[in-house]
Each structure stands twice: as C-alpha cells, then as structure tokens.
Design a protein that fits this description.
about 425 residues; 10 helices; 18 strands; about 25% helix
Length: about 425
C-alpha cells in the first residue's frame, strides 16, 4: 500500500510538471497591412483588429481603442465589434511610429493587443545635444578610476562547473577602493588563449548564472552585476534591495553628474574590460560586449569608451535620446522628462553625459542591433534614432512584433552573430 501511494504521488507530480499553464484562450490581435510594418511618410497604415476566443472571432466584443504617435496618442474610442473584427487607419506627416492599442475586458480581466507601424524610420534623427566637455569628463573619470588597483578576487563555484568550463564568482575594484564590481567568470577548461565576451545587465537587481554556453564554444565570458554586491545570493536579497535601497537608482541625483549612479555604473562596465584584459586566458585581440535594455546602453558605452572592444550587440537599448520628450517626441527609458511639466535645466544638461546617442556618435567597431516595434518601455523611435546615428559597420535585425522581450529565433541570431564576429572556434 505504501509503495502504491508513493507511485501515485510521483505520477501526480509528473503530470503537474508536464501540464504547464501557457498563454490565454482569449487573444486580441492588431495587424498592419504591410508585412514589414513600415510605411513612407504620408502613406496610410490600415490595421485589422480582432478579438478571438479559441482562435475564432468573439461576436459583439466591446473594445477600447487608443491610437496615435507612440507615447502621444491622439484618440481613444469605445467600439463594439459585431463580428469580432474591425479596421482602423493611421498616418504620420513626419518620420516616427504610429501605435494602435486595444483593450478588451471579459470576466474582470483585461486582454490587450497592440501594433506599432513605422513611418520612414530610417530618416529618424535624435534630439540629444552633446556637452562640450563630454569626452574630457569621461576621460578624466576613467583615468581617476584606473588609479585604483583592480585587486581582483576569484572563487571557484564547483557546483556550476562543467567538464568543459570552470565557473567562478569574481570581484574587482571599480572607481574607489572597496567599491567593487562582482560577476560570474566562465573559462574553458582546456588551456589556451580565447576571445572574450562581456555581458552587461539590464536594469534591476538580481543574481547571475554566467554565460557557460558561449564559454563552452571556446570563449572567456564575464557576466557582471552593477551594484557592487555579490551576484550569488538568494533572490529575496535582491528583491529587498530593488524595493529598498536601490529603488529608482536610475534617476537618482541627475542634478549632480558626479553623484549620478550611472557614473559609477558606466565606469564599472569599462573597468570590467580592464579585468578581462588582465586575464592570461584572453587572446588579446577579440573582445565583445553585449546586453539588452540597460545592458544595450552599457554595450554602447563600452564600445565608445574602450578601444579594446572589437564588436558589440545591443538589443532594445535603453537610455537613448533623453531630451526627445522636450520636443514632444518619444524618449528612451527611463523617460526622465516625459512626465514633468517643468524641467530642471541642470538635469537636462547632465542627461547628455548619460545619453546613448552621445556614445553612439563615437563608436567605430561593428555592432548588431535588434528590437521590436511594440516595445512600450524603450520606444522604437529612440532605437531607430540611435541606429541611424552610428556610422560604423552595423547590422539591424528587426522583430517587429516583440515588445521589451525577445523571441527564441532572435536570441539564436544574436548568439550566432557574436560567435562569428568574435571568431569563436567551436
């Protein structure tokens, strides 16, 4: 009896593991009539809206449809869809993006669909101006930081190691003694000289696992945190920091460029390149930097400020064109001036030292860019403006339907580009 009971419990557990919740039975779709989601200025974009249940139209569905330039909608209507579908139109008189957002409520739950069409996005230009002493500021900042010895520490994490890769938690000084950067270093077990890849993080606070996959292909990889704390603690520690001491760090002290957290964060990313350069396992030639959102911005920073970087990958890069909202245009996360009625001129000026556009203007190495048009965190307007600013060799891979996330195919393409560009030998 006891054995039978245990078998039944095991069977139930297996069923629970295999029968996962996935998706919703109700879906709201908004699709454009151009397969690439792009139009020329002056053309009319026609969007088909559908509310579906089990893949079939919901009759007499009542929706709320908001439409207009992204971040600045101009209309909001309540509509009833007799046959579960309808069409709306939109156009723009200048380069930019037009977004249609649809909400459908059923059973107390709101289902949303959206579509964002681009109008001559290849002609978008940024609004950001560059402080006259931008180069001097960052040159002096890095020079001061490099007066501090790295004092690197490395601790093996046996439970994370594989037969091909040794995994370590590492730390080293940033811009002051005791102000450290922590990360996960992955090094191939086989002795040799390898290309290196620095992975820089998106916004927030979390632990990190390291890039064992790329290391197993034949590369030294370093994935860093930016907050000066170990990256192997329990998740609850990071949650408490995110909701406490680090809450809103991205906009703290913008009125003082030397106390702004991103001065330390950007410096720490470059000091991570110093650390990689000190490793005997690095081949001394190939060094890439990559990340998404805030990490996309940090990739731009490293590529602009350190000549040892040979390539970078930036996915939906944040923090670009902060001042766009001052001219009624979509601005990059964290939307410093979007919600303010009055603008502190000191903050406006200081934002230029931390604007991805000003780093993009200085990049000379190849880059891979990818983002989606439905991103409501980092607007495609700011990402296209950043891409258009770069004069170095560049590749753009659009996944229009994505928001602030990526698809499996997008991830695979991203990794393949890095492996090829870094000359990683499988």
């Amino acid at each position: 009896m006891k054995r039978t009971a245990l078998l039944l419990v095991a069977l139930v557990c297996m069923v629970m593991v295999e029968a996962q919740i996935r998706g919703n039975n109700i879906a709201v779709t908004v699709t454009p009539d151009h397969s690439d989601w792009n139009y020329k200025v002056g053309e009319t974009a026609r969007f088909t809206i559908s509310v579906l249940r089990s893949g079939t139209p919901v009759e007499n569905a009542t929706i709320v449809c908001e439409a207009g330039p992204e971040m600045y909608p101009t209309s909001k209507k309540t509509m009833t869809l007799k046959n579960g579908t309808t069409k709306v139109e939109g156009k723009m008189s200048k380069p930019g993006f037009y977004r249609v957002t649809v909400d459908y409520n059923e059973g107390g739950k709101t289902y949303q669909g959206l579509c964002t069409a681009g109008f001559s996005p290849e002609k978008l230009t940024p609004t950001a101006t560059c402080p006259a002493d931008f180069d001097q500021f960052w040159s002096n900042t890095l020079a001061e930081a490099r007066k501090i010895d790295l004092d690197p520490h490395r601790e093996l994490l046996p439970e994370r190691c594989t037969k091909d890769v040794n995994v370590y938690e590492v730390s080293y000084n940033n811009n002051a003694w005791g102000s450290r950067i922590y990360g996960i270093l992955c090094v191939p077990v086989k002795p040799g000289k390898y290309p290196a890849l620095l992975r820089v993080p998106g916004a927030g606070c979390r632990p990190y696992g390291g890039d064992i996959y790329t290391a197993s292909k034949g590369a030294v990889t370093l994935e860093i945190g930016i907050h000066g704390i170990p990256v192997t603690m329990k998740q609850e520690v990071y949650d408490r920091l995110h909701n406490g001491a680090l809450n809103g760090y991205w906009e703290a002290n913008l009125d003082n460029r030397d106390k702004m957290p991103y001065k330390r964060i950007f410096t720490g990313a470059v000091r991570s390149i110093d650390y990689i350069a000190s490793l005997p396992e690095w081949d001394g030639e190939n060094l890439g930097v990559t990340g998404s959102s805030q990490g996309g911005m940090l990739s731009l920073v490293c590529a602009a400020l350190d000549s040892r970087v040979t390539c970078f990958g930036a996915v939906h890069a944040a923090m670009c064109d902060h001042t766009a909202s001052l001219k009624g245009q979509p601005c990059g996360w964290p939307h410093y001036f979007y919600y303010e009625k009055e603008h502190d001129p000191v903050k406006v000026k200081n934002s230029g030292y931390f604007d991805g556009i000003n780093f993009a203007r200085r990049i000379k190495v190849p880059g891979w860019f990818s983002f989606g048009y439905n991103d409501v965190v980092v607007p495609p307007t700011s990402m296209w403006a950043t891409y258009n600013t770069i004069t170095a060799p560049k590749t753009l891979s659009l996944y229009q339907q994505t928001g602030h996330f990526w698809y499996q195919e997008q991830w695979d393409e991203w990794c393949e580009w890095l492996v090829k560009e870094l000359r990683i030998k499988n």
